[in-house]
Amino acid sequence: MERVSSAPEMDDVISTDQSSRSTKRRAKVWDYVDSELVDGKEKAICKYCKAHLSSVAGKGTTHLNRHISTYCHAISQEERQRFLATQKTKPDEAHVFDPVVFRGLITNMAEKTIWGDDLVKHLIDVCKEEILAGNRPQGIFTRIGWKNVEDKFFARTKKKCTKTQLKNKLDNLKKDFTQFMELKIVATGLGWNEANQTVDCSNTWWDEHLEKCNNPERGTKCNHVRFRKHGPKHLDDLHFLFDKVHVTGATAMCPGDVSSCDSSSDDVLEVTEKTNEAWNKPKPKKRKQMSGAAQEKEEKSPFYQMYKNTCMKIESADEKISTSVEASSAPLQANLVPTIAEAMKMVKACGIQEKTAMMHTATSLIMKAEFREILFALETNEGRFDLIEREHKKSTT
Hints:
Blueprint: H1 10-13, H2 23-27, E1 33-38, E2 41-46, E3 52-54, H3 62-71, H4 77-87, H5 99-113, H6 117-132, H7 143-157, H8 163-186, E4 191-193, E5 198-200, H9 203-213, H10 235-241, H11 264-279, H12 292-299, H13 302-334, H14 340-349, H15 357-365, H16 369-377, H17 381-396
Antiparallel strand pairs: 1-2, 2-3, 4-5
């Protein structure tokens, strides 16, 4: 049975002073060493060379650390370096290179530097195609939609990106678009610079706005200043992808979002109906009436007060839910707006052909819920064609 004696007089050479090393740091060695009973005594066993290391009282884990960092012949150099990286805590000790952490940092840097302007444009175009194909119903990409986005993006760019990478980039684009639309709302009534695709504000206005937004005490800076000279790139395309995203944070919508303002109606009704069913269940029987003294004693109990407050909160929540259901049930039936896919069917039924200027105009128009509602309200295909034709002439003049 191999023992620590394979390293000559190691117990005498190794210092047992661990005052500069925290308990958490010392515990790292147990990722490399197992513990079990051998002949009634606790032994530490190296996971790599299977050497039995004595657990001498008072020596802590110093001899275990020394074995893993120096004497173990079976551990790989990479694992030994990782272990040493966890042990270097003194200011005068040199930094130990951790290859696993380094590879992770390089991977993150590669992911951050992959997005050039041409790749962003390809991603936007692919997402627009899938939206028009009906693969993002209710503001959420389907599995087929995401697969098509990945495949088409790879076919056009030869860059293999995962769904997570693509979604993260879309989320960043949505964040930029949202912040820019917030700036437009704040600057309502001021000019617009068409060449730079941003609001046209004076230096005085910017100075006042930045003074309101910046908070040196909290270390926060105004996000709008980045759009002072130029708006976000591909602004028209971002309008297409993130329509209405700037209205409120609650109704924000983008490819891959879990919820959206257009898709929440049915879910709300289903939840509220279940909630009402739960409240309509028969209530448990009340306890028998207590004597006056016992009741007064119970009312003074903090647990009784907590129970009473909880019941009041539940009753208040029930009233709010009932009021919300009554207020929302009628408008849900009156404000039905066709989806983009349904509006596209109406456009094609009018006789508008694909790959035409009229179809391009119609595609931009049906991204707006107001236009889809008007299109749905018209009863004849001739009336719908006339409306789109007039809008097309207006956009080309």
